[in-house]
Amino acid sequence: MNMTTIVQQLNEISSAVMYATEGIDLEDVLKRIAEVSRNLVQCKYAALGIPDKDGGLKYFKVSGISDEDAAKMDHLPRGHGLIRAPMRERKVIRLPRMQDDPRSVGFPEHHPPMTSLLGVPIQLGEQLFGVLYLSDRIDGKPFTDEDQQLIETMAGYAALTIVGATSNEQQSQLKVLEERERIGMELHDGVIQSLYGLGMQVDLLRIDDNVKSDQLIPIIAGLDTVISDIRRYIMKLRTVEGQAKTIQECLEDTTQKLNMPATIDVQINGTNQTPPFPPATFESICLIINEALSNAVRHAQATQIIITADVTDNNFNVIIQDNGKGFDLEQTQESGLGLANMHRRARFYGGIVQVDTSIGKGTTLEITIPIKSF
Which one is predicted more confidently, 53 or 335? Predict the structure, then answer.
């Protein structure tokens, strides 16, 4: 293998890893790793299995099988036979015909037919994070040493990616738990004690036959105060750190996380108001922006990127412009995973992504998300 080929493959792996790390959550990251691994070696099917503590599978994310076809199967693999072998043996399995291996236990009903197998453990040191499974090269040939080396390299990066995604998910869950505990303490020390005191006043009035209507006024006022407090606590529970930041600050954070090259001049024209969405929604919208910026950095050869964001009465709008080399939009729509993913995310929130580009022209990408009743 010559040096040019090696550099090209490393660039492909680097791009694949960047795409995988931009997943919405851990499960999306796992599916992306399977997807880019399948594309690296040009095979029909790929999957990423994460073991559970009982010897089965906690996650099994596939690429190359549609959701409709997956739904027809009796069940996804459960961690037996050749699925379990790389987890147990901690070594690569490469088979031209898996049905001839004594460890094979067959497929569930309605599973697509598969012949060859490349199973590569994802591990750091002695710690196993999962296994990458690939089957059936598109050209019909068995997997090669070069294929194995590519996926072993990808597995090393995948281990780090999974560690990062798992850590982010755990930190997010911890923040939610800490916030719930704090608000629970405030409710107990404040609101619940107030309700208890008001309840005693009502009990005392109930046994008094000479109760006057004006004696109920302070109790009603107290109940109004408690209701306001509860409403305030609920609003606090819905608020996380990212929500307190302005749109301008959120966009700055997004670009900083990408470690933009010094050769690219990035201009951000946001607003100083907070996002008009719940935190989780705006985080997902920022991932669309992240993907657009990542594409510009990796492929556009741009020297300038301008990000403009504003909020109208009905929509949140973001325009990302670069002065790069542009691309053939029709060709990219057929094979570009990143662009398709941006469209999918936007549609999930009722929005659209519009792209204006051509070769040599640069690219303008506009994201429009309706605010609705968020």
Answer: 53
